[in-house]
Amino acid sequence: MLNEHVKYDRHKEEFDACINDPERRKVALTWLQQSNTLDCWRHNRMYSLMKPIIEWNRNASWLTIGDGRFGTDANALIKNGANNVHCSDMSDTLLKVGNEEGFINSYSAENAEALNFSDNSFDFVYCKEAFHHFPRPYIALNEMFRVARSAVILMEPRDGNIEQAFLYPLLNILRKILGRRSSKHDFESVGNYIYALSEHEMEKFLLGMHFRYIAFKGINDSYKAGIEFIELEATNLKEKKIIRSIKNKIHFLDILEKLGFRKSSLLSVILFKQKPIDAQADSLISCGWNVKELPKNPYLK
User: Fold this and answer.
1) With bands split at pLDDT 50, 70 and 90, how would you rate the model's confidence at 72?
2) Nearest 5°: phi and psi at 180?
């Protein structure tokens, strides 16, 4: 049983508002409609990282975690070719609607820290931008790892306080000169602390579980309120300016990353429970993933 003192903030209230509050509902419906908006373009860039994994076996079973926005992650996996996807979130308020609309095929209300599935129930467990909401994220990660047969895949904000690019100190000095300060700790409006990811922390988790194969890929992103309503083919000059600003910001972040001034804003990680076969590793590498074999524990046979 989960401890009573663990707080899950206002996430359920947020999803209830997506149905009951007219303004919030307008935004929420853009998630369900999945039209050709600037916001959909952003998320499709992230979902594209899953394509080589889906291609390994389109009939592999997937579980999405923290997928309460009608099941948008599950829907994206299905659109990219996955045939067997179960969607989950602590609140099934919007999942019911997603299922009724044919947006997702299978769902259940699940607490990520206590999943109602047996060991090795799914080939892959996918958690996109939800891990950082959890009050005890490593308990949730352990649960994901337990129910996964092949791998757990996370995509989350990268912890820039732990992982800094080679020339980041110079960029940080410039920020201080310009009067821009960055916080080492961040919170979201619903109340949760943001648990950002780092490659080294993920490697430590995997080695602690006595597994050795992991893969990383970074991606940059930018968001501005209201882009859910801006079509990519917009003709309005104001909207076209916003589209350019978002794409230029991402391009600028890509340049800073290549020059060694910063790491990517988002980090994707694949935590393998078994060694990927050569063809799988090759397909990931060809798509820009860094596939690593971690050190063997010398005290284990």
Assistant:
1) very high
2) -100, 120
Q: Which domains occur in the chain, in start order?
A: 11-158+184-225+266-293 (3.40.50.150)
Q: How far apart are CA 35 and CA 221, in angstroms?
A: 19
Asked if residues 250 and 222 have their Cβ atoms less than 8 Å apart, the reply is yes
The predicted model scores a pTM of 0.91
Tokens, residue 264? 């990517």
Residue 180, pLDDT > 90, answer: no
